Amino acid sequence: MSELLGRLATDLGEREDYDAASQCCRCGYCEQACPTYVASGCESRSARGRNQLVRLLIEGRLSDPSSAADALHTCLLCGACTAACYARVPTLDIVLEGRRMLQDKPHWLARLLTRLMADHRGLFVEILRAANLSKRLGLSALARPILRLAGLPGLALADEHVSEAPLVFLFEKLRRRASVPRPDWLYFAPCGPNFLYPRVGEATVKVLEALRGEGNFLDNGCCGLLAYNYGDVADARLLARRNIERFEAAGGRGPVVGDCSSCVAFLKSYPQLFLGDPVWKPRAERFAACVADVPEILAAQELPAARGLPAVTYHDSCRACHGQGLKAPAHDAMRRLGGGSFRELPESDVCCGGAGAFAFRNPGLSDEILRRKAGRIASTGARLVATSGTSCLIQLAQGLKKYYPECEVVHLSELAARAIAQGAKDGTQAGA
Ligand code: SF4
Ligand code: SF4
User: Fold this and answer.
1) Is the CB of 94 under 6 A from ligand 2?
2) ω before 310 within 30° of 0 (cis)?
């Protein structure tokens, strides 16, 4: 069995895994909120079924524990069930504990990537640059059959889905900025903007400068979410400790702003990694209290509407709306940025099927969820859809190309940066 957290931070206080899973009274109230239940109609692919399976696993009452694998590995970790649940049962964390109970050891690829990012960052960066160069030259497509033969179909699919291949990464650009002695904000570069979408991070920094004054790049490492979801709790803790230390060395004041909602939600959950640790829990709490996602930064700001927009809509990243309760601020910001071009998206808070590596591990189920999402976007007539998570950017770009090619996806920061830049030209001031 992989290392477990053992105790979870629930809305009813800290609970042992078993007690957290037992908080689910199997009422079924969340069934229709669960995308994998709606897509499959299968009880074991609902929150109720998954919580029950983890309970049985802990009780040792599953004659074949591996029979729980499909249920646990098909969970999107979207948190829609928790948002719908009156008891706020933390199904996502319970499912992850269940996965670790089934694993002899952490997934080797997640472990390798985490180790490279944590201890050999220079090497990781050069491997990624070489991979991106081979993608630009069309060579990575040739390697896909080899990856499939080598038992790595997920990697082949990831290469197919990800269309971005930057050769200069965000941290390399941001390190050129002069740092200020008393920053009004710190920018945390999640791995998505850092290594896939530098333009997103650059847009976020521009927005922060326009709305919040001068700030600094934290020059952080990975948040640890990859290790937490697919690898190892110990590695997740290691990465969390390093980021907390960086924050403290940078002055220990917020906001610490990130622009991938999954990573930001995970940064906010750092205290759960250190339950029972008298030294690191308070430090994690101080850090988490300073973390903010882009929709929070845009909330309550004077924002000009972007000019020249086609019809635009908004898809809620699960970890923004369910994980951080940021649906209202995001939609409010979008109404102001989109002006008369904004259209509300039906089922905007239903997962797009991206969910980190889910799309590469469960391609059939992911595509079914994605097709429904693309259909909803098409129903608004939008030609542009904004969102706030890296996984959503990858998944929607891929799904729109396939099911609704008239439409493109952008990050909320990109839209805000565009509106603010136009406003500055017109003499319309953005700010509080
Ligand atoms: S997770 Fe909550 S809403 Fe869903 S079945 Fe369990 S108690 Fe009911
Ligand atoms: S986290 Fe999402 S996919 Fe998993 S049980 Fe909850 S609603 Fe369903």
Assistant:
1) no
2) no
Phi, psi of 391 (to 5 degrees): -60, -40
> Is the CB of 80 within 6 Å of ligand 2?
yes
Considering only CA atoms, which of 313, 217, 301 is closest in space to residue 258? Answer: 217
Contacts with 39 (C-beta within 8 Å, 6 or more apart), sequence order: 45, 365, 368, 369, 372
Task: Judge if pTM exceeds 0.85.
Answer: yes
Question: Using a 6 Å cutoff on CB, does residue 34 contact ligand 2?
Answer: yes
Q: Residue 15: which H helix or E strand, with range?
A: strand 13-16
Euclidean distance between CA atoms 381 and 333, whole angstroms: 20
Q: How many domains does the chain have?
A: 3
Distance in Å, CA 236 to ligand 2 centroid: 22
Tens digits of residue pLDDT in 34-69: 999 998 999 999 999 999 999 999 999 988 888 889
Query: Which atom of ligand 2 approaches the CA of 82 most closely?
Result: 6
12 lies in a domain?
A: yes
Ligand 2 pocket test, pick from 37, 44, 78, 368 with the greatest ligand atom count within 8 Å of Cβ, gives 78
Domain that holds residue 55: 7-102
